[in-house]
Design a protein that fits this description.
single chain, alpha/beta, Rossmann fold, four-stranded antiparallel β-sheet, 11 helices, globular, binds adenosine-5'-diphosphate, Branched-chain amino acid ABC transporter ATP-binding protein/permease
């Protein structure tokens, strides 16, 4: 995979919050159709890195390039048009909308040029769009959610809600998918289902970066692993090599 095109290149990214360096010079290269694990103790900067990569926070210094285009200060709605999608550690589904409408919001995002349009576009307009509805239903079917399309998220199991979040992110047709602790709160069967979903997503050429706390899961799921500790990359490589690194073992024992 070492000759696959680079999808994400972060160089010396620093993010400070009132003097606290949440990221203290992080560099990262991720290639096409790779599944990359991002691990590290609590407070090591994983979520902050996702926030920078997805345009939620501009970095204090350093650069980010997505698909060869500099995106260091590109806001998240524009990055989503460029092919970056993410899910959140705490589910962020629209609670008053049905599962189908949640996914339609993702489909709509591929067409919206402006964030305000995305925000104010009335749901009644969305509901009346037959083509968008069909597109959403195809995606729901792919993720085993079609029978739940008319339910609101709170009527679903937690695992199914997590799947809706992934389905909505995939509806934006991303090239880079950022998953923030997608396995948190899932049971064993749901974790296996998640692994299959992530593999299917990768098989379509999408690059996936996954924040995950469970090292065992990362080892079995990811092609390469990046380990953060106090805002720095302390290891980066194949899961088996990273798992044996003394720095990594020490960082985890101190957690
Ligand atoms: P992780 O996801 O690895 O647990 P975070 O990226 O959430 O780590 O946090 C890294 C550090 O940055 C922590 O010390 C956290 O308190 C701090 N931090 C994160 N976001 C903010 C923010 N918006 N304001 C101030 N400090 C923050």
């Amino acid at each position: 995979h070492d000759d696959a095109p680079v999808v994400l290149q972060a160089t010396d990214v620093v993010k400070s919050f009132k003097g606290l360096k949440a990221l203290a010079g992080v560099s990262l290269t991720v290639r096409r159709a790779e599944i990359r694990g991002l691990v590290g103790p609590n407070g090591s900067g994983k979520t902050t890195l996702f926030n920078v990569l997805s345009g939620i926070h501009p970095p204090t210094s350093g650069t980010v390039e997505v698909l060869g285009t500099r995106s260091t200060t590109t806001p998240s709605y524009r990055l989503s048009l460029r092919g970056v999608a993410r899910t959140f550690q705490n589910l962020r589904l629209f609670s008053l909308l049905s599962v189908r409408e949640n996914v339609m919001m993702g489909v709509d995002r591929t067409k919206s040029r402006w964030s305000w349009r995305y925000i104010i576009r009335p749901i009644s307009v969305l509901r009346a769009d037959g083509r968008m509805r069909r597109e959403a239903d195809e995606i729901l079917e792919r993720y085993g959610l079609l029978s739940l399309a008319d339910a609101v998220p709170s009527e679903l199991s937690y695992g199914a809600q997590r799947r809706v979040e992934i389905a909505r992110a995939m509806a934006t047709k991303p090239k880079l998918l950022l998953l923030d602790e997608p396995a948190a709160g899932l049971n064993g069967d749901e974790v296996n289902q998640l692994k299959a979903i992530v593999n299917d997503i990768r098989a379509t050429g999408v690059t996936v970066i996954i924040i995950e706390h469970n090292m065992g899961l990362v080892m079995s799921m990811c092609d390469r692993v990046t380990v953060l500790s106090t805002g720095k990359v302390i290891a980066d490589g194949l899961p088996e090599d990273v798992g044996q690194s003394p720095e990594v073992i020490e960082a985890y024992l101190g957690d």
